[in-house]
Structures are given as C-alpha cells and as structure tokens.
Design goal:
Length: 273
C-alpha cells in the first residue's frame, strides 16, 4: 500500500506540472488600451490650466504630453500652442476651457478634431532639507574621514487630464497623475577629516568658498531670502539639481497619463481584441 501511495503521488505531481507547463506556454491574449485613441481622426490638446506657483509648469506638461501622443502614431495631434493662438485671436480665456463647452466646440470646429484634451496642473511642491555638518569615515582600514552635509531634495507635481467628445460635450476619459523625484546628496566640505569638531562659526564662509557647494549655497540663499508673508521660494530656477528633479517629475506624471493609451501583450491597432 505504501508503494502504491508513492506511485499516485508522483503521478499527481507529474499531472500538475503538465498543466502548469501548458498554461505557461499558452499564448497571451492581446490587451487593448484602456482608452483607444486609434479610433479617432484628430485630437487637439488645449492649454492646460496652471494652479501652481511655477508659471511654466503647465506649458511643459502639455508640450511633453503632446509629443508623447504624437509619437504614439495613433492620431494626429494639434498642439496647445496652436490652440492658444486661436483662443487669443477670438478673445477667449484659456482658463475657461475646462468649464466652457462653447469654447471647446469652437476649437473643435476650427481644427476639425473629434477629440479634445484639457488638463489642470494642480500642484507643484519642492522639499529642501539640509542636515547638520557631520563627519563620516570613508576608509575603515586607515580611518580616513571627511566632513560633509546630507541634503534632501524632492519635487512633487500633480496633474489631471480629460478627454471630451466635442460634438456632445461628453466626458470620455479622465485621469489624475502624480510625478515625484528626489535625491539625498552628500556635499563634501573642505574641512580636514582629522578634526573631530568642525569650525561651526565659519561654516557659511566655508560653504561659500567651496566649489562643490554652489548649488547648496544658492538654494540656502533663496530659501532664507526675505519675502512677503506666505510666499514660498521656488528653487528650481536657481538650482541645477532641482531643475533635473522637476524634469523627472514631469516625465513621470506624463508617463502615467500615457499608460491608458498603450495596448499590451502584443496588441496592435486593428485587432478585434
């Protein structure tokens, strides 16, 4: 009976393995996009509304989104800059596009599109945290050490995009996306690593004369600059590091929005499924 039980056990294992192998080899079913742009004739990207203190952010988001849509080769794209010129010519307020069906209808008629994309950039936030000077060992065998500062930088943005049918005013698609990027950098200070206690009194002078700390000095000065009550500093124009973080965050946000327009598992335009 024991040997019979072992035979059944091995047969069961073999049978289960065969099923799993067949399932693993079965062709994956193509999955269409969540929103199929390929069934439309033309889309116009309208100027995005900017609800942030970064005056160029909405334009950067809409430009990158227009480029990504065009590279998809699903539908011809009318860029927001073209739409903005037209709105200016008819005296329309771009900020009212999200609410005004009549303006959207005029844009659709002018550019002969059957799909309109609107959007709002709802937030842009920068985080800049500078640590205290600290000494760290860089070679455990020799005891060699160096002085430096850990600096945390982060950028967060949020975008909402929508697609409308201009003939009916119906909302066809909407998506909210967030993009973020951060770094935690070590800025070496020109203080001898042999010192156990840094010369705190002269730290600002040390930072100003250290070439490796130029970005850090600009960010500190901008952060600490006297300004009207409630006004927050905008660090990215003065910092190459924040410029890169901002660029990465825009890309991440747009990339998330574009996710609904791509098929997967080998899907191609024209497939039934």
């Amino acid at each position: 009976m024991r040997s019979f039980g072992k035979v059944l056990s091995w047969k069961s294992v073999f049978f289960l393995g065969a099923i799993l192998w067949v399932q693993g080899c079965a062709p994956s079913v193509p999955k269409p996009p969540a929103f199929n742009l390929y069934q439309y004739n033309r889309v116009a990207v309208l100027p995005f509304v900017n609800d942030t203190r970064d005056q160029y952010l909405a334009a950067d988001v809409e430009d990158q989104l227009s480029g990504r849509l065009a590279n998809l080769n699903a539908v011809p794209v009318v860029q927001a800059a073209q739409v903005a010129k037209y709105l200016q010519s008819i005296g329309a307020d771009p900020s009212m596009i999200v609410l005004d069906d009549a303006i959207r209808a005029k844009v659709a008629s002018r550019f002969k599109v059957d799909l309109l994309m609107t959007g709002v950039v709802t937030s842009y936030e920068e985080t800049f945290k500078e640590g205290d000077p600290e000494r760290r060992v860089v070679n455990s065998q020799t005891g060699e050490a160096e002085w430096g500062i850990n600096t945390f930088r982060r950028v967060d943005i949020a975008v909402t995009a929508k697609l409308y049918d201009p003939s009916t005013g119906s909302l066809l698609w909407t998506e909210k996306s967030t993009g973020w990027s951060y770094t935690n950098d070590w800025t070496e200070l020109p203080i001898p690593g042999s010192l156990r206690i840094p010369p705190i009194a002269g730290l600002d002078d040390i930072l100003r004369t250290a070439k490796v700390a130029r970005d850090l000095v600009k960010e500190r000065e901008e952060r600490d600059r006297p300004r009207p009550r409630g006004e927050k500093p905008l660090l990215y124009p003065k910092s190459s590091k924040f410029k890169q973080l901002r660029e990465d965050s825009v890309y991440q946000s747009v990339n998330y929005l574009m996710g609904d327009f791509y098929g997967s598992r080998g899907w191609k335009p024209g497939l039934v499924k």
